[in-house]
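Same chain as my last thread, 142 residues:
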Amino acid sequence: MRHRDRGADVPEPTVVAADAADYFQTYSVVGLIAVVGVLFVAVAFGAGRLLRPVVPTPEKLLTYECGVDPVGEGWAHTQVRYYVYAFLYVIFAVDSIFLFPWATVFAAPGYGATTLVEMFIFLGFLAVGLLYAYKKGVLAWT
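reply #2:
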């Protein structure tokens, strides 16, 4: 579109180079803070390695649990149901984490019906998973 095709009240578009410079300057500050953080951690680990005493003895190299000497082999059988309980806990922890932002959006005007439907769909998926776990018998503590 040529300039004369536009109306007299339409200004000519301009590109502001200062906006791009400000944009990259903010990222350079974030990058500088990240580099300082990495250097801080590296210096702390390096100082720890240089200052710590290194006197390996057979007792220090022995594995132990709460100060008790190990007896037998280090292999122990763990039942799967404990992992199932942990997995169910994670599922419901994620559910509770999802509920708090949902409640704030639900309170906002204009979002009530949509967020309510989305939450019931989400809770439906969780209920189906819980029902499946119940039908499989993994919730029975035996």
